[in-house]
Structures are given as C-alpha cells and as structure tokens.
C-alpha cells in the first residue's frame, strides 16, 4: 500500500543514488508541487540544490515577497530574480492564449539560462550543475500528452517538455507519479508549512492567462487588486480550504454603469471557484450569495476601473478551469 512515509523514504534514497554528488538547479513557483519536490531534493542532496524564484510580474498581489519569505526558513538555497520588464515587453500586444504561453515558456528559459550561469559561476572548483529539478506531477504529463495529439490541441503547459537541448541539463522529477492529494500528503510528512500545502494551484503563466486579450501592467494591477479582495474573503469566510482553485479573470470587454449621476464605461471581472480532484474535471462551486454579494461590493467600491463583477457557473468539461 502507498503511504507518504514510505514514498519519502524510497524517493530520497533513489534521489541520493541517482544524483550522487551532482548539483541540481531548480526554479520554484511557490506552489505545492515545486516546493515539495525541492524539499525532497534538499533531503537527498542538501546544499547541492540551488533554487530560484522568478517574478514575471504576473503573480498575485504581494505574492513574490510572501513566497520568498516562506522559503526563507526552509533551508532552501533560494534567490529571487526580478524579470518583470522582460516578460511585459515581450507580451505587449499579444492576445492569443497559446502565443502567450509560448512567449512565457521561452522567456522562462532565457531567465533560467541566465540564472543558471550565475549559479554555475558560484559552484566550487570543478563542480557542475548537471540536473534540472522539476515539480511535474502525473496530471501534468497526461494533459501535455493530449496537447501533443494531432487533433486535440488543448493547452500547452509551458512547464512540461523540458529545456532545449543546448542546455544539456538532465531532468529530475521526483513527483511525476503522484496526484495532487498525494503531493500534499507527502508535503505534510516533510513538515512543510500548511499555508504552502493548502495553496490553490496557480498556473505557471500566472495572470497572463487571466487577463483575456492583450496584457498591460495597468490591467494586471487592477486584476491583482480585485483578486486580492476575492481570495481574502474566501479565506476569512472559511471557503478557501473548501475550494480546489479560485481566481479572478479580467475580461476584454467594457460595460456601461452609473456612478452618482455619471455614466461609466469600465472593466468587468469574472470570479471562478471550482472543486476538483486533479484539475482534469472540475465543478463550479456554489458559493453563498451573501459572500458573493460582499465580494462584488468590495471590488466595485474599492477597485477603480471595475464596474461589474460576474460569477462563472461552468464546469469542466467543457469549460476549462482557466479561461485561456
Ligand atoms: P485547465 O484550464 O486546463 O487547467 O482546466 C487545469 C489546471 O492546470 C492549470 N493550468 C496551467 N498550469 N501552466 C501551468 O503550469 C499552464 O499553462 C496552465 N494552464 C492551466 C490550471 O490553473 C488548473 O489548475
């Protein structure tokens, strides 16, 4: 029978065997998967694991600081990399979802390349980082296989598929046989903080795929404010832990409203909350009307530029969790 304790024991032993005295480089996302994978690697190779966390400017409000903070005391050798400008400039004017993912994927690779060169320079004489650590889990593999099918292009998960050949890094993916709930159990066994383990999944391309249409810093900022109100209310009302994933989507339409005796013509955001086991299917959550009313009022009253909030009542299939 599968237990998280025996998984940790065997995996750490296997990683020690596989990696020997090699160094591993890893980009963390602040999410459950990459964190659990990193801690397993840390148990196996200690100081020879080198992590960094990229700020692409498309994270949630305050997330970059919070994530770096939460890694601080976990012994993970982590560096923050600010790459906002690079991502925003490359994404400017791009609306097509797959193109956004491709740009983000290749920009991640460029940032990664740069950061790993820095890391290589700091290694002891003669040492070389030969491995790339990744938090890939089983459903990621399934979804990207379906993406590559000839007829059904769903979404190209930017984080699956590895790096270009020239980087010559071998990939180590300690969680690739696990489902999300198993990853959380492993994380608990590793005594990872519950605020990290309880985090909702968040897509690698971040808010880029929640700003429908072209991306500007201003739209991202408005979305971050609205999303912050939404997520805070979910936490305060106890709904955050009952929901598998929630997020706010910035729609590419404007709508007419009134404010005092002025006509407004402003932005619309959609709120999404789903229940799921592994993200492959999902049901929309029946949040209480009172809670939705409170969130809607707060967003409309506090976030300048938004005059309408809608709630997404679609399940997957056919509607995917993300809108892009
Ligand atoms: P969908 O929208 O396909 O999402 O129903 C299923 C799960 O995958 C996440 N997702 C992504 N994660 N890169 C990621 O790392 C991506 O490009 C991507 N697209 C979707 C989504 O947030 C949900 O948890």
Which labels suit this protein?
324 residues; alpha/beta; Rossmann fold; GMP Synthetase, Chain A, domain 3; 2 domains; five-stranded parallel beta sheet; four-stranded mixed beta sheet; 41% helix; globular; binds xanthosine-5'-monophosphate; glutamine amidotransferase
Question: What's a quick, concise take on this entry?
Answer:
The chain is of the alpha/beta class and 324 residues long.
CATH architecture assignment name of the largest domain: 3-Layer(aba) Sandwich
Tell me, what is the CATH class of the largest domain?
Answer: Alpha Beta
| Low-confidence region ranges | 147-155
The chain-level structural class is alpha/beta
Strand % is 15-25%
Task: Characterize the largest beta sheet: strand count, sense, and whether it forms a barrel.
Answer: 5 strands, parallel
Q: What would you give as the CATH superfamily of the largest domain?
A: HUPs
Count the helices. How many? Answer: 10
Percent range for helical residues?
40-55%
- The total beta strand count reads 9
Q: Oligomerization state of this entry?
A: single chain
CATH topology of the largest domain: Rossmann fold
Radius of gyration of CA atoms, rounded to a whole number: 20 Å
Q: What's the shape?
A: globular
Order of helices and strands: HEHEHEHHEHEHHHEEEHE
Strand order of the largest sheet: 3-2-1-4-5
- Terminal-residue CA separation: 38 Å
Mean pLDDT: 92
Bound molecules: xanthosine-5'-monophosphate
Number of domains: 2
Model description:
The chain has 324 residues and is an alpha/beta fold. It folds into two domains: 194 residues, 3-Layer(aba) Sandwich (Rossmann fold); 102 residues, GMP Synthetase, Chain A, domain 3. The chain is built from ten helices and nine strands. The strands form two sheets. The protein has a five-stranded parallel sheet with strand order 3-2-1-4-5, sandwiched between helices. The protein is globular, with a radius of gyration of 20 Å. The two termini are 38 Å apart. Xanthosine-5'-monophosphate binds next to loops.
